Amino acid sequence: MEIHRVSHYYDVEHALRLNDLKQSLYDDGKILMDKVLVTLHGDEHRQRRSVESQLFRRNFFRVYENDVFPELLNETLDQFLTAQSLDLKELGYRIMVHLSLSFAGIDRIEGTVEEADAQHRLLIQLGQAATIGQFKGDREPIYQEIRDAITEFRERFFLPSRARRLELIDQHRNGTLSDEALPRDILTILLMHDTELTMPDELMVREVAFYYLAASHTSVHTLVHATHELLTWCQQRDIAPTEIVAAPHQLQRFVLESMRLHPSSPEAWRRAEAEVTLSDGKVVPAGDKVVIDLQTANRDVSVFGDDAAAFNPHRAIEGRVSPAGMSFGGGMHVCLGMNLVAGTVLRHTEEAQPDNHQFGTITLIIKELIERGMRANPDQPPEKIAASERDVWAAYPVLF
Ligand code: HEM
Fold it and tell me: How far apart are CA 153 and CA 178, in angstroms?
């Protein structure tokens, strides 16, 4: 079995659209990832995705950004923004645990710090299923921890959240509850389409847990990188960050440019189900693996210019290239949460429509934190994870 690497921008775009390349990044994490959306293929994937995408119908984003999100953010900040000196990564997890569970369809029951701690711990334990493929040591204790975490997640959080939703769906079917009063989350959508999806119970638990993972780690990674880029840019030019965040369209450009430079999933992995030809003419026989390098593609100088590796939120990009590059993937598995987290992603030449523009959660969180006085902590420089080849912050001390 040979491994083929694809890293030029347009080759990556093309490879992600090849239907005979099947997801393989999570092959060792089947314990959680088996048959969840991102590992499905072909008709099964199409059917589940078309059901789950229905969550974004009607005015989902407008209601989310105007009503749902501000309340969730305020709740978290009231509870956890309690000291002057904090680690932004930790605060980011507090925020994203709350936002991601709400989107997945898991309720807070007690609303206590202990409960939020348990949800954060479960996120870390469950998340090991997505990265275990890269782990070289004895995997059995990790598999056991993931198994226990799935059981705890199911019993403590999934079952009560499902019971509440089943009651509301019943009321909706009886005509006593309006469309607007139904929760807007993945679990509700899955339960409403239960007959058509025929998902076993244990798969529904894992699907909801997968959404929780997919939304959290990626967003925290992005929040910390984008904040760092913003603070550094402002410091180098002697601009107050409050000036940038006062114009959220501008701040959104900063966030998208940071997403391009620091994709939270640097690679997509696929296996050829049948022989395929890559866009450079290379033939990949069935069974071979293809590593699609999103991070390198995002720094392709032929697309982003000679300064492709530098942070420049005012960059002009020709053609139909997203300012976030390939960070949200492409083709059949293109990120379903993209507009939620990044907002309306305009190409360089497109004009924003003021009445119908979303900024995305990362822009809105950074805006709120800067407006509440967040700045870098001059006595404690931020640190990256030294042992990791990846571009990941270990801690990001800030002051309020
Ligand atoms: C900055 C944040 C995020 C980044 C960079 C990101 C990136 C990605 C990428 C690269 C993929 C494709 C993986 C592949 O092709 O193998 C993906 C898929 C996915 N993402 Fe995201 N994601 C982010 C946030 C979110 C959020 C907030 C949600 C949910 C609300 C989400 C839900 C999903 C789902 C469900 C899929 C699978 C789609 C499918 O297989 O059809 N993501 N994401």
Answer: 29
Atom of ligand 1 nearest to the CA of 361: 27
Residue nearest to atom 37 of ligand 1 (CA): 38
* pLDDT over 90 (residue 251): yes
Which residues sit opposite 244 in a β-bridge? none
Which amino acid appears at position 370 of this protein? Answer: I
291-327 CB burial, b ≥16 within 10 A, e <16: bbbbbbbbbbeebbeeebeebbbebebeeebbbbbbb
- Determine the atom of ligand 1 nearest the C-alpha atom of 40: 40
361 CB under 6 A from ligand 1?
A: no
Residue with tokens 């929780």: 212
Nearest atom in ligand 1 to the alpha carbon of residue 269 is 16
Say how many C-beta atoms besides its own lie within 10 A of residue 112's C-beta: 11
Indicate if ligand 1 lies below 6 Å from the C-beta of 335.
yes
Question: Which pLDDT tens digit goes with each residue over 287-339?
Answer: 999 999 999 999 999 999 999 999 999 999 888 899 999 999 999 999 999 99
Domain boundaries, position 324: 3-372
- Any residues with CB less than 8 A from the CB of 55 and at least 6 apart, and which? 184, 185, 186, 189
List the CATH number of the domain containing 261. Answer: 1.10.630.10
Check if 49 has its Cβ closer than 6 Å to any atom of ligand 1: yes
Distance 237 CA to ligand 1 centre (A): 34
pTM beyond 0.90: yes
Q: What total of structural domains would you count in the chain? A: 1
363: Cβ below 6 Å to ligand 1?
A: no
The answer to whether position 398 is within a domain reads no
Residue 351 one-letter amino acid: E
Question: Under a CB-based contact definition with an 8 Å cutoff, are residues 217 and 223 in contact?
Answer: no
Query: Is residue 103 lining ligand 1, measured as CB closer than 6 Å?
Result: yes
CB 100 within 8 A of CB 119: no
